[in-house]
Amino acid sequence: MESSEFNKKIEMLTQQNEQLQNLLMSSTIIHEMTRVMLASSSLSEVFNTLLQGIRETLNFERVILFLIQPETNQFHPKHAVGFTDTSWNNLNISKDFITQRFGNPFFANRHIIIDDISHSDDPFLSITTKPYVVIPVASSRFSKTGSNSESQNREIEGFLWLDKPSTLDPATGDDISNLMTLALQTGIIIDNFQMYGKLETVNQELSVKNDHITKINHELEIAQAKINKELDQARLIQRGLLPSNFPNIRGLDFAATYIPASQVGGDYYDFIDLTSHDLIGIVVADVSGHGIGAAFIMSMIKILLRKQAFDNMSPKNVLTSINQIFLRDIKTDNFVTTFYAIFNLKTKLLQYANAGHNPILLYHRDSGQFQLLKADGLFLGVFDDLMMKENQIQLSVNDRLILYTDGLTEAENNHGELFSIDKLCEVIKKNNHLNALQLKDKIVTGLRGFIGSSDFQDDVTLLIMDVLSET
């Protein structure tokens, strides 16, 4: 009795040991196959390793891997082993057949064993009349079973079809377990390859776009170099339009500077030599906009001003004539603000007209008082009637005239504060003892110190005329 029970226990332990050995063997086989598949450089190598491994280790005689083709909604045979002909290659299985034949278990990622293949619509009748096994190959993505809910079913990439024609038993429980594990690993590997393929496609597209961008950048560099060259030439022309020397007139001292916001700006200052009439003309103008167009308008204003100034000794009449020619002959969206004055060298009388320009500063150095020289008038190039008035004022020895464009007083620092006419007056008054050139340098230094690291947003023009003694 005791011997019989002992033998039963020995037999049970032996069976358990065999089961453990089988599990260990299965685990080792699956691990090794997975390792080889992961190391494969192509899906073709993955499929070959999978199918050959299943055939050799799980003793299935024939194996076919089907993959879904979304375009046709069919499962197409991708790889097969164990066949002596190519009959398997024509097996295109519709998804509708899979749904009707295998139903929910298949799409719930469960194995199917078909024992009865008498159905005439079974597409596998062309290759077998014996039982076969179908193992879904699912991806790592989840599929939706409804519009408002997400099931735990994984999206099906394909399936494995397997059989053992030489035996009536198509698969053991261990076979099914191993197959399900391998199918799961295969689905993940397919996902990885598909993702890698998409990344490769994206990288190729990005490479093509990058090449295109590089080509465009090269073309832009060439175009920019051409523009820069043209701007340099325009800048030289513009600089040539500004006076290279100041009038050498006894009793007067001049200083001026021009700082463009870009390579080519629209500010302009000039002296008109009318000494044959004991007069000198002084002008400061500001053309709207920047660049070559503004510089072109500036050059036209200079030509017109010089022509009109010699024919007419009235600042108002000169600016009115220029405006009429501007409207008639120059088609542009630009407009021009202009302050034009004529100074009588003998009487020290200053006649002036203002076409929309900012007021001019007159500083009486002896008294330390400032006076704004204003005159009504609209800017040039827009209106037929400038509604302009001409004013005059008597200057004296030690008077200082400061003409400027709004780029100076409206220059901003990093805090959005303006340099302002008040700060300009402060610098002028503080440096009352300096000559015109020295004062000009002080104003520019103070302006640059005020704006700091900010860039000039507009051109800056400054012109100073000191009345020193009897002319």
Find the count of extended strands (DSSP E, 2+ residues): 16
Domain tally? 2
- The N- to C-terminal Cα distance equals 148 Å
Under the CATH scheme, the architecture of the largest domain is 4-Layer Sandwich
Average pLDDT figure: 84
What's a quick, concise take on this entry?
With 471 residues, the chain is α+β, with helices and mostly antiparallel strands.
Describe this structure in words.
By secondary structure, the protein is of the alpha+beta class. It has 2 domains: 2-201, 2-Layer Sandwich (Beta-Lactamase), CATH 3.30.450.40; 243-467, PPM-type phosphatase domain (Phosphatase 2c, domain 1). It is built from 10 helices and 16 strands. The chain has helices spanning 2-38, 43-57, 95-102, 104-107, 173-241, 291-311, 315-329, 406-409, 420-430, 436-451, and strands at residues 62-69, 74-81, 93-94, 112-114, 132-142, 154-163, 252-259, 267-274, 279-287, 336-344, 349-355, 360-364, 369-373, 390-394, 399-404, 460-467. It has a 6-stranded antiparallel β-sheet. Strands 7-16-15-12-13 form a 5-stranded antiparallel β-sheet. Helix 2 (43-57) packs antiparallel against helix 5 (173-241) and helix 6 crosses helix 7. The protein is rod-shaped. It starts with a helix and ends with a strand. The model is unreliable at 145-151 (pLDDT under 50).
